[in-house]
């Protein structure tokens, strides 16, 4: 029996779960927001009871101290020594990390060395690591990388058709993201189907404000929609997804924007927000779709891009045994699932509209006779972090 703290640190936030292993029971979870800003917000939930406090939290170290104080004050643990290990989510592991690793000084340096691949995320993740190492120096810690699951992709999937020296010198290639989520739902799909994962061809659709599709053959990612950055792939909440790269200089010329400004538009002002004209939140868009043509158009574009990847990845794997929907939109939007799945009967997908009428729970939504199973599986990245932390620290 062990207590594993799963951490996801952002530049001004700290998300956490305290998980009892091996039963994978969440004992407490919460979020620290606005770290380093006035009126920071600390929220903790224990036994379905949520408490929120507003105070000034100047830095991540103060956030960690407050987090540990709140855990002990709530009675979940009596002392900090009851935390057996800490697992940290890290967005980018480059090619150096194909699996989770024990955090050492050398590993921290390697993560810093590749921070140019994820300048908005890795430094924030490292801030959390430094804060915990300062306060809990004797407790083992593990780094779990979003990109690691996709390191099984073959060269034909991850290489871009660019001068090869760009890959050799600068690491320019497809990395893929949401790997921890794709790993969890693919393993859970195997359990639900009662079939060993090394006998399955799966397509995992992680659909949220950020969205990515993964082709998982025999438990290994062989392709994924996101690329060198999370900007690539399908249409997302505010991200454009794939576009003709020649559009960037064209937009610069027409609007007078710099390259950085155009990239900002592609990341933060495009996607569903741009198509609908009023929101990046799919719930808002769904509500207006019947009366607003652009809202309906945004849904159609979103679903069509995903639909296209399903056909493409089924071809890559010479068939598919199951399609998985996960994350906020994938788990909760029957409308999106319907639009994505319609027309896939030609490849053995027969989904049941009555079974599709669910939100946020595990279920098969295909007819029993469907050769290809269709599942909704709520993702649980924190459990993957906890599992890997136990595996690497031996704190079972």
TrEMBL record:
Subcellular location(s): the record lists:
Cytoplasm
Keyword Cytoplasm recorded: yes
- Which Pfam families does this UniProt record tie to the protein? Acetate_kinase
- Active site residues according to the UniProt entry: 146
Q: What metabolic or biological pathway is this protein involved in?
A: Metabolic intermediate biosynthesis; acetyl-CoA biosynthesis; acetyl-CoA from acetate: step 1/2
Q: Which residues bind Mg(2+)?
A: 8, 381
Q: Looking at its record, which EC class is this enzyme? A: transferase
A single Gene Ontology MF term assigned here is: magnesium ion binding
Q: Which InterPro entries match?
A: Ac/propionate_kinase, Aliphatic_acid_kin_short-chain, Aliphatic_acid_kinase_CS, ATPase_NBD
Instruction: Tell me which EC number(s) this protein carries.
Output: 2.7.2.1
The protein's UniProt keywords, in alphabetical order, are: ATP-binding, Cytoplasm, Kinase, Magnesium, Metal-binding, Nucleotide-binding, Transferase
Q: How is the cofactor bound?
A: Mg(2+). Can also accept Mn(2+).
**GO-annotated cellular components:** cytoplasm
Site feature Transition state stabilizer, where = 178, 239
Q: What's the cofactor?
A: Mg(2+); Mn(2+)
Binding residues annotated for ATP, in chain numbering = 15, 206-210, 281-283, 328-332
Q: Which Gene3D superfamilies match?
A: 3.30.420.40
Which positions in this protein are listed as binding substrate? 89
* Domain of life, source organism: Bacteria
Q: Name the chemical reaction catalysed here.
A: acetate + ATP = acetyl phosphate + ADP
Give the record's GO biological process terms. Answer: acetate metabolic process; acetyl-CoA biosynthetic process
> PANTHER family given for it?
ACETATE KINASE, ACETATE KINASE-RELATED
Q: According to its UniProt record, which protein family does this protein belong to?
A: Belongs to the acetokinase family.
Please describe what this protein does: Catalyzes the formation of acetyl phosphate from acetate and ATP. Can also catalyze the reverse reaction.
- Subunit architecture: Homodimer.
Q: What is this protein called?
A: Acetate kinase
